[in-house]
């Protein structure tokens, strides 16, 4: 049986270096001649993504539950493409995924279980890499932008929820979760990320799992 592509998710706080690290990972995969595609959530190009973009830029207001469901719907609208890519042997690298959905909404006070529900049975990553940085260090990296949630206190709560999610993923056997110290020089971080990804990216034999099932 031929192997499928690996599903890799990169998570972290705002300013943790996800864009830099996902780009470095993609070029590394290319150099290794491993077919790979980079996706990013929210995908702001779709109709739902445009609503999310407007909310994040505070150009529109939405109930916390409603925006949470839009973020989830934005993943569902791409779920079948992810499955097809993986089945065709392409490694999918995703900048944020359902874990961000839970972490940010739960940090606003929505119940954790409620936040998880709409993402149940989405394709589960084979590996989630959490780029861990302190909210202080993140802020020192040129500060946050103008978007919602980019406040130190919020990021502190988000990091705590991510910690819970990671512990649960590790305990459940649902793919792997690793914490990478993202406060270091980007080349050092990239090397460690590659160390976690390399073997998986050569192809995965088992079936794709579903989140929390
Ligand atoms: N975010 C991202 C959520 O609140 N829920 C989600 O499901 C996802 C995928 O959107 N602060 C938040 C996290 C970020 C913001 O993401 C935009 P980015 O990676 O900064 O474009
Ligand atoms: Mg951001």
Question: What is the H level of CATH, i.e. the homologous superfamily?
Answer: P-loop containing nucleotide triphosphate hydrolases
Q: What is the element string, with H for helices and E for strands? A: EHEHHEHHEHHEH
Largest sheet: 5 strands, parallel
Low-confidence stretches at least 5 residues in length (pLDDT < 50)?
none
**What's the total count of β strands?**
5
Shape descriptor reads: globular
The largest beta-sheet arranges its strands as 2-3-1-4-5
Helix count from the secondary structure assignment: 8
Ligands bound here?
3'-deoxy-3'-aminothymidine monophosphate, magnesium ion
SS content category: alpha/beta
Mean pLDDT across every amino acid position: 96
Helical percent range?
40-55%
CATH class: Alpha Beta
Protein name: Thymidylate kinase
Domain Thymidylate kinase-like: 10-192
EC number: 2.7.4.9
Pathway: Pyrimidine metabolism; dTTP biosynthesis
Description:
The chain is an alpha/beta fold and 213 residues long. The chain has a single domain (7-201), classed as P-loop containing nucleotide triphosphate hydrolases (Rossmann fold, 3-Layer(aba) Sandwich). It has 8 helices and 5 strands. A 5-stranded parallel sheet has the order 2-3-1-4-5, sandwiched between helices. 3'-deoxy-3'-aminothymidine monophosphate binds next to helix 4.
SSE blueprint:
Elements: E1 7-12, H1 18-31, E2 36-40, H2 47-56, H3 64-87, E3 91-95, H4 98-107, H5 112-116, E4 127-132, H6 135-140, H7 152-172, E5 176-181, H8 186-201
Parallel strand pairs: 1-3, 1-4, 2-3, 4-5
Helix pairs in contact: 1-8, 2-3, 3-4, 4-7
């Amino acid at each position: 049986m031929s192997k499928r592509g690996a599903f890799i998710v990169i998570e972290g706080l705002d300013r943790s270096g996800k864009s830099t690290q996902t780009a470095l990972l993609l070029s590394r995969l290319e150099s290794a001649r491993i077919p790979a595609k980079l996706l990013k959530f929210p995908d702001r190009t779709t109709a739902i993504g445009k609503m999310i973009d407007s909310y994040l830029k505070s150009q529109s207001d939405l109930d916390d539950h409603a925006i949470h469901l839009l973020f989830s719907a934005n993943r569902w609208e791409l779920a079948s493409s992810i499955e097809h890519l993986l089945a065709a042997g392409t490694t999918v690298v995703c900048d944020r995924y359902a874990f961000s959905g839970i972490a940010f909404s739960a940090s606003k006070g929505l119940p954790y279980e409620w936040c998880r529900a709409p993402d149940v049975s989405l394709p589960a990553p084979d590996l989630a890499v959490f780029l861990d940085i302190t909210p202080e260090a993140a802020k020192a990296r040129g500060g946050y932008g103008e978007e919602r949630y980019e406040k130190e206190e919020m990021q502190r709560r988000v990091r705590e929820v991510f910690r819970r999610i990671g512990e649960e993923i590790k305990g459940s056997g649902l793919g792997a979760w690793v914490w990478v110290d993202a406060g270091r020089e980007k080349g050092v971080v990239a090397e460690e990320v590659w160390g976690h990804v390399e073997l998986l990216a050569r192809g995965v034999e088992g079936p794709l799992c579903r989140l929390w099932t």
